[in-house]
Amino acid sequence: MSNAFPFILALYIICIDTVWLVGAFQDNKALFWLSIAVRGANAVLFASFGGKWTALAGGAAVTAGIMFATMFFDSRKGRRSRARKGRR
After folding, report:
1. Which structural domain range is residue 49 located in?
2. What integer pLDDT is reported at residue 2 of this predicted model?
3. Which helix (H) or strand (E) holds 24?
């Protein structure tokens, strides 16, 4: 790997995180679900590099899991509150 690779990778991660931040301000659910897929792909990519990159892969996998759990429970909460409103 060249010496510029870590810099390019860091710039890529900053750009992607900026997109996620804009999606959060817009409350864009599709972008949230896409972020889970991208974080999972990042985890696989970082794990394939081996060495110290595996720690970063673990972090990407954990954040993908947290994001998935958050989106899953948020979607269930919406269904339950709509069901309660229908009973009244």
Report:
1. 5-87
2. 65
3. helix 5-26
Single-letter code of the amino acid located at 12:
Y
| Tally of domains in the chain | 1
- 34-45 pLDDT, tens digit per residue, is 888 888 888 898
Q: Are 34 and 20 in contact (CB under 8 A)?
A: no
Residue with tokens 């790997």: 1
CA–CA dist 56, 51 (Å, integer): 10
pTM over cut 0.85: no
Cα dihedral 78, 80, 81, 82 sign: positive
Alpha-carbon dihedral sign for residues 51, 44, 31, 68: negative
| Residues 83/51, Cβ–Cβ less than 8 Å | no
